[in-house]
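Researcher: I'd like a structural prediction for the single chain below. Treat it as a standalone chain; there are no partners to consider.
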Amino acid sequence: MELLRLDQTNLEVPRVGKGGIPIQRPSTNKAIRGIQHALDLGINFIDTSIAYGANGERFGQAIAGRRDKVIIATKTVWRNKEIALKCLDLSLRRLKTDYIDLWQFHNVSNFERYKIVLKPDDGVMEAAQEALQAGKVLHVTNWSPLHEKKMCGS
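Model: Treating it as a single chain, here is the predicted structure.
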């Protein structure tokens, strides 16, 4: 399977990843089998969020023993440093890992939200810097409809 460099990181991922929303619907066993099948096919990128319900636990069970072969992206919608870090720690526990490859700030889609992310002392960027220094996160980015348009050449 062809791998591409993910944005400005050294992470290599296929064009196709496994997202967390669809694995909420099936039973836990079916979801885990589906994730493992995707991994067996060479899909090494999983995208999750604490907001997606039980998907963190399902991914955590599915990647047991394979963590070094999987690139995990997760998101925070929180803009407060303390809450974002608590949610990151919860995601780490659910995923049964001690680090996230890519932590995203969800829906930074206008300048007002951008300013909140960068708020000194209490913003989520402060949380990201702390998480990076602690080794809990390897890369940080933002995802927004504006970013997607830029990436897609629109």
